Amino acid sequence: MKPRQFMFGLVLSAVMGGSMAIGGYKLLEDDEPVVQVQQEQPSRNFRYSSLMRDSEVKVPEGLNFVTAAEAVTPAVVHVMTEYGTELAQNNSKRQDIDPFFRDFFGDDFEGYHRRQGPSVGSGSGVIIASNGYIITNNHVIDKADKIKVVLDDKRELSATLIGADPSTDLALLKVNADKLPTVRYGNSDNVRVGEWVLAVGNPLNLNSTVTAGIISAKGRNVGIVQNVDANGNNLGVESFIQTDAAVNPGNSGGALVNLNGDLIGINTAIATQTGSFAGYSFAVPSSIVSKVIDDLLKFGEVQRAFLGISMREVDAKLAADKKINTLNGIYINDFSANSAAEEAGLEKGDVITQINGVNVNTSAAVQEQVARYRPGDKVKVTYLRDNDTKNATVTLRNRMGDTNVVKRELAKAVNYGGAKFEPLSKAEMTKLGLEGGAKISNVKSSEFKQTGMVDGFIITRIDKSKVEKPQDVERLLKSAEDESGVLVEGTYPDGRRAFYPIGRR
């Protein structure tokens, strides 16, 4: 019998009281192959431990997990989150539900469900500063009303969210405490495939747990981190360290350390079909973690740099089609507006082979290298043009195409066209299953009265652009003033969806 193929399922390893999923994609990569692995019959080559002689149990010279485990476990904490009680609606009519789920819910199902009491979630975190700064995953604390942390000494403390970065699935918390044990940063660039590592987490408030394994791969892009901006661009950064150390639900945000006890990654996801560990786990490398956390501390917002290119990996077919004499590197398909790479002289069809002397053969490798820098930083890009090697100095830019510091933009009410647009509360977003939007009022006395909108309508999209806050409405409508019209999409507080065309102003 041929081995049965199964899809490579990825789950974020936090234990959530409700359901949460992060969809997959690859940043600016044109081809997205489905990843499959083969399921083999388990080997029968095992022995009962009770029948093994003591002489067979030996620790290889230089291999000792005790020192690292004892150093790290006191600095790994349990993170608890709480979400408000709401009557939630999934914004779907019954006929839109997959037939399998329709049969499961029964004929009375109309897209509503009631949460009994507050929803709760949990994960792990890592103390990086003795005065109470803690790293965890963004998906562990996303949209939480309350966050608490249980330390290794059983103290339970309220935590404040300092900042979060959905693009790397990282978040920074702060508790009011001092003289806390910490984990020191290691250099994830120096770790090698085959090296022993420890995964340390604090799932289900059971105190810290330690598992051991080896690094299976580096620079993995598995399509699980999703962060789509208002213009539909995918901003996620994935270049995971893959390990076979057992990481189970509740370990999200825990530490991946080397045998010196140095932090080389933050555990984020596991590969699974069942929700439990199935052989592989993935961690954000410390080279990205340290930069993201430093930005959150200094600016409250990550200063993300971009080359401004649309890229694909060079394979045999592309090399043959484009007459490229290598199978290494990243092919430039196109440039974004105000592209840093294009400004530096790169052209469509060039093949980037190195960034600051580091080989880049995958989109994940490009993401990891660029994610280390801020807008305004200069990097040396080595590339091929007509199979000749060239170099360029690229001044990286932010997503707006300049080098300015990006400040955290708080959602606030906006007056535009005679109407008022207000941000949504957490309760409203939870109830309607939204990540953001802008609620309109004063419609009758505004230029929007002819559209048929009613006060309370929540705008979630204008044409193909996502609306996350009131400022997005003003920006998108102003940019569309020269067009014949736009389509406004949204929902009412009772869950009814609606679409309104707005003509030229």
TrEMBL record:
This is Peptidase Do. Its EC number is 3.4.21.107. The active site is at H139, D169, S252. Substrate binds at E82, H139, D169, G250, N251, S252. It comes from the Bacteria. GO terms for biological process: proteolysis. PROSITE patterns: PDZ. Belongs to the peptidase S1C family. Residues 296-387 form the PDZ domain. Keywords: Hydrolase, Protease, Repeat, Serine protease, Signal. One of its GO terms (molecular function) is serine-type endopeptidase activity.
